[in-house]
Design goal:
Blueprint (H helix, E strand, L loop, with lengths): L1 H26 L3 H9 L7 H46 L17 H6 L3 E7 L4 E6 L22 E3 L14 E2 L20
Parallel strand pairs: 2-3
Antiparallel strand pairs: 1-2, 3-4
Amino acid sequence: RGAQAENGQNQEESKKDQKKKEKNTAGKTPWYKKILGYCIPSKNDSIGEIIRKVFFSLGTLICIGCLIFIAVYYISYFNSQKQNESLKDLLTQSTSIPKDYPEGYLEKFAGLYKINKDVAGWLEIENTGIDYPVVKGEDNTTYLEKNFRKKKDKRGTIFMDYRNDARIEGSNMVLYGSNLNDNTMFSNLVNYKELN
């Protein structure tokens, strides 16, 4: 008899425990459903609640879009800096001169010439951060949104006016480049407005 009473008591306890678990799980909504319920309108919501949820969802999407835009911008910036450093390294490395290398070009540009035959030189202005390769395309639009490797890049490349001839001594050269807000390309030239 004692065993039967103990068995019955254990069964009652397990039934109570099971009922407690059912109550706990029935009252709890998963976290993702709570978030979706907070953001997405349902048919039971009042008009005010629907408007709030729509504006909240739009605000969230706008914030995500802005974060993506900022991330893409900085990734582009760091990739551009990294590429420029690797191109500058080519100036100091000795390399074999290609067979089609133009006569009169300085040998230090041979490595850059292998990457882009439009290379026209290198521009460096002390204390400005301007330290970039210069190219000369067939027109003045080719390198507006292409990098030195001729890949699409909103920063573009510093390029010489296609009508200039660098072989004529004493002639003025017209160079074009972007004026960006991140202190790259020609953005620091505005500092020349001040006399000091």
